[in-house]
Design brief:
Elements: H1 12-31, H2 38-48, H3 61-69, H4 80-84, H5 101-124
Helix pairs in contact: 1-2, 1-3, 1-5
Amino acid sequence: MKKIKVPKRMTLKQARDFCQSQWRYVIKRVRAGDRRNVSELKHQWILDHGLERGEVDCDCFYCEYADQKSPGVRDCKYCPGRKIDPEFDCRNVEYRYIYEPEKFYKKLLELKRIEVKNAKRKADK
């Protein structure tokens, strides 16, 4: 797998791209019947890409982006998902990532569609 380096000042696009890539891996493994839990799968993706334990906050690029904006304080208001949907929360019982990985992945894809739609609207103005 391609090794990556987490930028000290990650852009929104980088956070979203890394997150999408990681979750494509997680869902692929879940669908293939991998018996590891989601946290273990996320961490495996981190290791497979040359990163070390603790290098990415919570093994989540959205959390890492938020942490870079507010170091040492878990402040979800900086979560890239919330920049698209202010109600987004990875712990939402409807699509909580740890218990509902398929629903969470669908939520990420929905956020991506909203982001693309909003960018198109801006470009059309």
